[in-house]
Amino acid sequence: MLRCARLFIPALLMIALPGCSLFGNDGPVPVAAIGALNRNPDRAPAPYSLPDRLLLDATAGGLVRFAADGQVEAGLAERWTVIDDGRSYIFRLRDARWPNGRPVRSSEVAQLLQQKMTSQRLRPALRGEFRAVRDVRAMTSRVIEIRLTRPMPDLLDLLSQPDMAIIRRGQGWGPWRARWTGGTAALYPEPMPGADGSIEAEADPEAAALLWGTGAAAAIAQFEAGEAQAVLGGRFENWPLVAAADIPTERIIIDPVQGLFGLAVVSERGVLASAEGRAAIAMAIDRSAVAATFDAQGYQPRISLRGNSEEGVAPPTLPEWQTLSRDERIARGRALVADAADSDAVLRIALPDGPGARLLFARLSFDLGLIGVEARRVAMNADADLRLIDEVAPSDDPAWVLRRLGCGRGFICDAASRSALRAIDEATDAAARAAAIAEAESMMTAHGGFIALGNPLRWNLASQRLTGIRPNARSRHSLIRLLPSPD
Length: 487
What we know:
This protein is α+β, with helices and mostly antiparallel strands. The chain contains 13 helices and 20 strands.
């Protein structure tokens, strides 16, 4: 039988409902999100944490949002249309109000969006992704238009990111509101305004979800004890904790994401000074062994910059050494390192904390040792030669990977890659853009500035009650979609 008392349960859970009914199939859904949860994410240090993004999605949704299956659905905008050959998106806003009862106006939404699109608060995965936006303007009190310099088929996916939440002075428009006890947010559906425009005119609804931020180990323990019905935001570095906890397979949700998981070359010191030296490092790593180390269902290793081929775009470019056997790769890598004998064969690899990262480093250290390179692990914010990049692609745009690894972001780059990246934005039609993407990928693969390992690993835990948590390619699980919609 489940217990009401525990040492680390958030205080609000004990007062939300009598008799511990929240642990059954009624009452609010208790959710443990991995990371730190801030009462006002918009004023917290950038970028937003995973718990912050969950809170923003619930209380300050964007124009559109992700449904349970990862598809785009209505948010603040109740409908939209695309005109001018994809260069204009027109959104009609729903009747929404700020917490003080004042109507949400299109003019302020347009201004807030324009600011967010260029904000340094955006996650690295989103920075620069809106540069094709010419302007955002209010057309009427409830209609806004986003005008583009070129078509952006991925615009709705980008606008669905919680980072694009419509929030003003720390307050969101809804569709839920938050009330706090300690570090736990009780989330309530937004009441309809009363006749005087004040939400106080309506009775408070019952809480629909309880959200708190915590570490991965604590979140898994809370799930095992029935004190959390969902754990959201798991990554590769804490994945071994799930196996250690012996969570039933049917309660584990692994998202089939695409993106970047690998080592960015952030220094041209020693063996990394040449494309041949960088290729030696890439050849040495046994990606099948990395995948076996994680032992996560569906996890796929990768040697190319891009993952799956998108429609209308050439298949991912593979490095020239991809036809070599494992033994041949090691032999060639050892020879290349020996040729650079006057170089320092010690590489500092920046990795996050956690048991998964320790296992990854052990694998990398072993593989690099086979070609005569010593690996040293350093913190993510320390000076390094190789730095782990672990990011989910925010859209299906095949150029995202190339832009993310492009020049001017702290990664090494060459003139050919820089020119090829510019050609992607300058392409005038789909065929020209596809050709530019293929050319840029070929240049960047030859340069060797990123050593791909596979796709990102994203996992979640969900009780049997929560049929609204489904695997999806965006790894987005909205709190307002945890439970199925009533018939």
